[in-house]
UniProtKB/TrEMBL annotation, chain A:
Residues 1-63 are annotated as: Disordered. Residues 35-49 have a biased composition (Acidic residues). Signal peptide: none annotated. It comes from Physcomitrium patens (Spreading-leaved earth moss). This is Protein BCCIP homolog. It comes from the Eukaryota. Belongs to the BCP1 family. The gene is LOC112277186.
TrEMBL record, chain B:
Pfam families: eIF-6. The lineage of its organism: Eukaryota, Viridiplantae, Streptophyta, Embryophyta, Bryophyta. It is found in: Cytoplasm; Nucleus, Nucleolus. Binds to the 60S ribosomal subunit and prevents its association with the 40S ribosomal subunit to form the 80S initiation complex in the cytoplasm. May also be involved in ribosome biogenesis. This is Eukaryotic translation initiation factor 6. One of its GO terms (molecular function) is ribosomal large subunit binding. HAMAP family: eIF_6. Signal peptide: none annotated. Gene3D superfamilies: L-arginine/glycine Amidinotransferase, Chain A. GO terms for cellular component: cytosol; nucleolus; nucleus. Keywords: Cytoplasm, Initiation factor, Nucleus, Protein biosynthesis, Ribosome biogenesis. Monomer. Associates with the 60S ribosomal subunit.
């Protein structure tokens, strides 16, 4: 399956963009842009050019429309470095076998998708699911388990997490969804549609019974990045009392990937923990604290999720 | 002997360290693993110095040096300069360079006798390189790239260059540098040799992702298999006997 579909997105930088706030919170340098699909009636290339010519009066540089085609591919060995780069902060600043983890993802050609601007370019987004029971013994999975166990210690969800790696391991898949910060939201629906389809096909097409069984997934375990608003008083309190881990979000959670919010609503259980890596301090000053969010989503919510996601785009 | 090592999940060893025949500089990192790997291999023979340059950890790309000297960018603070000067052997001249292209490690590649420099480097800097490092200086490109320090790594015994270097370029560079050269990769296909590998006459360090094939190429072109630090001692012995006779 080479390309599952092509999405044509017009990048037209406009002064006000909601994405900018989230991206500024990341401390990343991003060219602001709101993505609009070709099929939308509102955008007309000439109109864009007219409005942008107004901005020439201001000190901003003249703005162009950039057409980008995103294509969907199976993960290939050539994508090793690109995927590794996307997974660099998966376990925050922990030292672990990222190369081994990337190799696992590349080896699973039946399930997993990579989004690139062109076949020879670096990946922009990654979505795949690894069955925990199947890969449990790999050193990278052991390290992920250890990391999550440490971070969930003293939490209610700790026991539930242990079950996922223990007695339910064969029915749980680790959902891995990473993308560049400014990747358009429109990439998500085909990505997830592709994932669920590939998993369904794998239950029928895989050569051995064991492999077919391994794709009959009942739960997804998902680790993702989120932000939490930190008000001035809260940050002062934190300094005085030393940061304590919160099992429920006390502030408003800001989701970097919009579909994470839908998944969080549909999740059976979840917990958050603060990060200690480079990003943490930088974001603190902007009133946002970076957290990791771990959640378990029941597989039977697949269709509901896809419907909600579709609504979100429109 | 080539060793695989990692700096806080990064395989770009050459960014966080600088290795020569007389000393080794390493960046200050979160865990002691990086430093202790270098210490274990080199500790008895040459000083391994923890340093920062301009408050950054990317010291491998900011400075350039060999057994004769070390050049640091202008942004290096006085304390950092003093610390490095104190820890390095007295024979090594440490000098700050005022140069627009401040990432000296990316712009200059050298061994103890010859160096390649970025085509746009100032004349003053070129003279400083020749004086402080005691080398012959050549302005060159590697596979069309002007950042010679990033795309090659060579010692007195051999060198590794960007994989897309043509045969003609390889021959030309080899005759300039007077060492055998090989075009290859490091860290599982990475073309940025300078970032992925640090090497001196008897040992090399590269990222954890480096494949066995890449490692064997490195060991053969840099002649590391039979190399011993005692080679340097032997050189000294020869000159000692000279004076006696």
């Amino acid at each position: 399956m080479a390309a599952l579909g092509k999405r044509k997105a017009e990048k037209s930088p406009t002064p006000s963009s909601e994405e900018e706030e989230e991206e500024a919170g990341n401390g990343n340098e991003v060219t602001s842009g709101s993505e609009e699909l070709d099929s939308d009636e509102s955008t007309d290339p000439e109109d864009e050019l007219n409005t942008s010519s107004d901005s020439e009066h201001s000190s901003q540089p003249s703005q162009e429309i950039v057409d980008v085609d995103f294509e969907y591919f199976d993960p290939k060995p050539n994508d090793f470095h690109g995927i590794k780069a996307l997974l660099r902060t998966y376990l925050d600043d922990e030292t672990w076998d990222i190369s081994g983890f990337t190799d696992l993802i590349l080896a699973q050609t039946t399930v997993g998708t990579v989004v690139k601007a062109d076949e020879d370019e670096s990946p922009i987004a990654l979505l795949t699911a690894l069955n925990i029971g199947r890969y449990q013994k790999c050193s990278c999975m052991v390290e992920i388990h250890k990391y999550l166990r440490v971070k969930s210690a003293h939490k209610v969800e700790s026991a539930l997490l242990e079950d996922f790696w223990g007695k339910y391991a064969r029915e749980v898949a680790l959902l891995i969804s990473e993308r560049l910060v400014n990747a358009p939201l429109e990439l998500a629906p085909p990505l997830y549609q592709g994932l669920f389809e590939e998993i369904l096909w794998a239950t029928e097409d895989e050569p051995t019974q064991e492999l077919r069984e391994s794709f009959k997934i009942k739960h997804y375990l998902y680790l993702t990045k989120v932000f939490e608003e930190v008000t001035e008083e809260k940050s002062r309190d934190k300094e005085q009392r030393k940061q304590k881990e919160e099992s429920e979000a006390t502030g408003q959670l800001i989701y970097i990937k919009p579909e994470d919010e839908i998944l969080h609503e549909l999740s059976s259980w979840s917990f958050t923990f603060p990060v200690t890596g480079d990003g943490a301090a930088a974001n603190q000053t902007k009133g946002l604290q970076q957290l990791r969010l771990v959640m378990a989503v029941d597989a039977k919510h697949e269709e509901k999720f896809q419907a909600e996601l579709k609504k979100l785009i429109e | 002997m080539a060793t695989r090592v990692q700096f806080e999940n990064s395989n770009e060893i050459g960014v966080f360290s600088k290795l020569t025949n007389a000393y080794c500089l390493v960046a200050i990192g979160g865990s002691e693993n990086f430093y202790s790997t270098f210490e274990a291999e080199l500790g008895d023979v040459i000083p391994v110095v923890k340093a920062s340059i301009a408050g950054t950890r990317v010291i491998g790309r900011m400075c350039v040096g060999n057994k004769n000297g070390l050049l640091l960018p202008q942004a290096t603070t006085d304390q950092e300069l003093l610390h490095i000067r104190n820890c390095l052997p007295d024979s090594v001249v440490v000098q700050r360079v005022d140069e627009r292209l401040s990432a000296l490690g990316n712009c200059i590649a050298c061994n103890d006798y010859v160096s390649l420099i970025h085509t746009d480097l100032d004349r003053e800097t070129e003279e400083l390189v020749a004086d402080v490092l005691g080398v012959e200086v050549f302005r060159q490109t590697i596979a069309g790239n002007i950042l010679v320090g990033s795309y090659c790594q060579f010692t007195n015994r051999g060198g590794l260059v960007h994989p897309h270097t043509s045969i003609e370029d390889l021959d030309e560079l080899s005759s300039l540098l007077q060492v055998p050269l090989v075009a290859g990769t490091v860290n599982r296909g990475s073309e940025v040799i300078g970032a992925g590998l640090v090497v001196n006459d008897w040992t090399a360090f590269c990222g954890l992702d480096t494949t066995a094939t890449e490692l064997s190429v490195i060991e053969s072109v840099f002649k590391l298999r039979d190399a011993q630090p005692s080679n340097i001692v032997n050189e000294m012995r020869a000159s000692l006997i000279d004076t006696m006779s």
